[in-house]
Design brief:
Layout lengths: L7 H21 L22 E3 L4 E7 L2 E3 L2 E4 L4 E6 L8 E2 L15 E5 L5 E6 L7 E6 L1
Parallel strand pairs: 1-4, 2-5, 4-9
Antiparallel strand pairs: 2-3, 5-7, 6-8, 8-9
Length: 140
């Protein structure tokens, strides 16, 4: 028995569309709490500011959703940089070159402060617990 090929194209396209929708919805499902574990961080939010210039003498970095916000921060030498961890796991803010700064472990919900280096330059940093988390502190 031979089936007519007429009309099967739209049916196949509709089936493919349904499959894509189901796969997309499955990827969006979850607990809804926005959190992740140390092994499976959620995707970073795209609305976070990428860079910021702090007022003289003060600067803020927020850790949320396994992301430093802002990812690039420009400060004056000796500025006090306050780091707040809004994640459910511990993080660090550790300069990658030399020992320019290191917050040590910042527990969930904790806030710590460090002093920006006195020498002008770019200071890349990361979370030593989650090295995919990166940022840059620029001292002008």
């Amino acid at each position: 028995m031979r089936l007519s090929s007429r009309g099967t194209g739209p049916v196949r396209r509709a089936a493919a569309l349904v499959a894509v929708c189901l796969i997309t919805l499955a990827g969006c499902s979850g607990s809804g709490d926005g959190g992740g574990s140390a092994g499976t961080p959620p995707a970073p939010a795209s609305s976070a500011p990428m860079s910021s210039s702090a007022p003289a003498g003060q600067a803020l970095v927020t850790i949320d959703n396994f992301t430093f916000t802002p990812a690039r921060l420009t400060v004056d030498p000796g500025t006090k940089v306050t780091v707040t961890n809004k994640d459910s796991v511990a993080h660090t803010v550790t300069a990658t070159a030399g020992k320019a700064f290191d917050t040590g472990t910042v527990d969930p919900g904790a806030t710590v402060t460090f002093t920006a280096p006195a020498k002008a330059g770019d200071y890349p940093y990361l979370c030593s617990i989650h090295p995919f988390m990166k940022g840059t502190l620029t001292v002008r």
